[in-house]
Prior knowledge:
Layout: E1 9-13, E2 34-37, H1 42-49, H2 65-79, E3 84-92
Antiparallel strand pairs: 1-3, 2-3
Amino acid sequence: PQPGHPVKELLFFEVPSSTEWRPPGSDQVFAPDVFYDITDTLPKKLNALQAYEKELRPFPHPRSLRAVEALAHWRGATVGVSAAEAFISGRRIV
């Protein structure tokens, strides 16, 4: 965003089955610094993902419902809530 633009912050999100891939020797890992508590909305998220049945895979694939739920609980545990969605702050205008 630029000054005066209504968008004040860019957040980069984690994509199960994509974010964990990187070229050998690359130190670019997903290291989130912004977390949203999704404890109350996690069931809705999992339900919504079922609309994309052709994108889902059986566990232990990262795009399985079980793995998506486990990731939400893992991200939540790292910040002291039951479930969280993690982001990297890309740019912010204060």
